[in-house]
Amino acid sequence: MTRILWVLSALLLLAGCAGPGGNRSDYVVVIDAGHGGHDSGAYCGGKKEKDLVLQITKKVYKEFKSEGYKVYLTRGSDTFLKLGQRTRMADHKDAKVFISIHANAIGDKSRFDQVEGVETYFLQKTRDERSQRIAARENASVLQGTDKLSQDVIIDAVLNGPKIIQSHKLAIDVQQNMMKNLNGEYKAVKDGGVRPGPFYILVGASRPSILVEVGYLTNTKERQRLFTSDYQDEIAEGIVSGVNRYLDNRKKEIGF
Ligand SMILES: [Zn+2]
């Protein structure tokens, strides 16, 4: 039996197949932990979004590394980065994908324990008020000092580019794999789905880019889960499986 397995592996190597979880060293991925420094992001129950997303981002980093990817973080510590500094790295490193990691919050206290779930966004203008509200919260700090006209110019420059379609596909694969992982281990994690949104952090990178909202800090149950290592592991593994799936499909489509 061992001999058969050995022959099979040798044949796979000869055929140039890395197999699942094989060497992916040709792929560069840039992971962005949202906020940082003076910008805490969402804050609830004594917990800050900037700390949570850094913890998760470090796990995502390790997971990508173990699969053989070249992976870079926009921030590996509690520092603030300006708009452009984050996505510039994705272009500079010629990343295949750019993933920004955030946590969500709502303003209406009476609904704190009703609103929960995992959502993945790709850049697109939308009339959906909910997406606009979430984007406005996430945009607040990165857009400081940029006037309205410049904001419109920035966003219109990329909105019709081909990367929108690929970003949408990437978002679907990542969202599905996160949900599969989380629901395999935890009860009733809500699937908030894939949504378009005008997130400025996604504007600058000229490559498939998504923003993951890993859950709501304003929801007590979700906040407690989010700060556990096991829950973070499931999210991190889901994100990496989603990127694997996206890149494998993309490879079949265009042979890159
Ligand atoms: Zn955020």
SSE arrangement:
Elements lengths: L1 H13 L13 E6 L9 E2 L2 E2 H18 L3 E4 L11 H8 L4 E8 L13 E6 L5 H14 L5 H11 L4 H23 L5 E7 L11 E8 L3 H7 L2 H26 L2
Parallel strand pairs: 1-4, 1-5, 5-8, 6-7
Antiparallel strand pairs: 2-3, 6-8
Zinc ion (ZN) binds next to loops.
Write up what this structure looks like.
The protein is of the alpha/beta class and 256 residues long. The protein has one domain: Aminopeptidase. The protein has helices at residues 2-14, 49-66, 85-92, 129-142, 148-158, 163-185, 220-226, 229-254; strands at residues 28-33, 43-44, 47-48, 70-73, 97-104, 118-123, 191-197, 209-216. The protein has a six-stranded mixed beta sheet, with helices on both faces. A two-stranded antiparallel sheet has the order 2-3. The longest helix is centred in the C-terminal third of the chain and has 26 residues, at 229-254. It binds zinc ion. The site of zinc ion has 6 residues, from loops.
